[in-house]
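Lecture notes, continued. The same structure-token format from the folding unit now serves as the input rather than the output. Read the line below as a description of shape only.
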């Protein structure tokens, strides 16, 4: 099914191309703070809302959502943009999508950035907590889940996240809005797949693509997977962002931008 993807876009006409893919229940807004700075470095930068997220199409049915389908959407978007090659950055679930795309289309990538993500099944919290969230969404939709999370917090809360919530007006509300704009069917489909997906580490180890792995130092669930990916992908390096959790682009933005900019300069 072809879907329309809303996107942020800057630097049209630049010869270098950068695609930024957000994570589960995220949105293009996750990169809005940095898109102008990246374009100023000479890149055509695009950050889409994935299907079932933000302002993009929300097809009905759980079978409309999977990592493979998201990766196909990325391929179609790159084709639509007329990009022969590009650098692909994926955050969290977006990193799993980026990994799947890289394995299928390595010839299209000038560089790969895997950020706070994993190469296989996510090890995050107790499964009964996840099943409880799925039950809430089945019965009351994402609105009901947001109300529950206001009381209990998220499984990816870290001191860095709480600091940004306290210091940045509207940050918590932005997170709730992104959740509310996420499709119920997408949530149900992906909370099943993310915890049962096949391990891609062996396939990632076969890549011949410049690669950077980024992880926040407080993002405990994703530190070991990040270390394994950086060790497996030939020539990849690991950058641990200090004073940051699962979203270092918000929690230590200057360090995150410096690390990404240095990598982009290298692959140019």
């Amino acid at each position: 099914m072809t879907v329309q993807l809303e996107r942020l876009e800057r630097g049209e006409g630049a010869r270098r191309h950068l695609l930024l893919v957000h994570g589960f229940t995220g949105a293009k807004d996750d990169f809005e703070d940095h898109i102008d700075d990246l374009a100023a470095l000479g890149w055509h930068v695009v950050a889409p809302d994935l299907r079932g997220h933000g302002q993009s199409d929300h097809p009905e049915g759980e079978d409309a959502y999977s990592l493979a389908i998201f990766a196909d959407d990325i391929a179609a978007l790159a084709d639509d943009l007329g990009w022969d090659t590009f650098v692909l950055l994926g955050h969290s679930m977006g990193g799993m999508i980026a990994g799947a795309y890289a394995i299928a289309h390595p010839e299209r990538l000038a560089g790969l950035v895997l950020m706070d993500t994993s190469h296989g099944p996510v090890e995050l919290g107790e499964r009964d907590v996840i099943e409880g969230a799925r039950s809430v969404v089945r019965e009351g939709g994402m609105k009901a889940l947001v109300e529950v999370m206001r009381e209990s917090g998220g499984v990816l809360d870290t001191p860095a996240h709480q600091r940004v919530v306290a210091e940045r007006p509207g940050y918590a509300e932005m997170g709730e809005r992104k959740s509310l704009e996420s499709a119920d069917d997408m949530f149900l489909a992906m909370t099943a797949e993310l915890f049962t997906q096949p391990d891609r580490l062996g396939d990632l180890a076969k890549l011949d693509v410049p690669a950077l792995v980024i992880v926040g130092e407080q993002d405990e669930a994703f530190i070991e997977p990040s270390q394994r990916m950086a060790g497996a992908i030939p020539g990849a390096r690991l950058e641990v962002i200090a004073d940051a959790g699962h979203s270092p682009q918000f929690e230590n933005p200057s360090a995150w931008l410096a690390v990404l900019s240095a990598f982009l300069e290298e692959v140019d």
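Point for the exam: The first strand starts at residue 7 and ends at 10.
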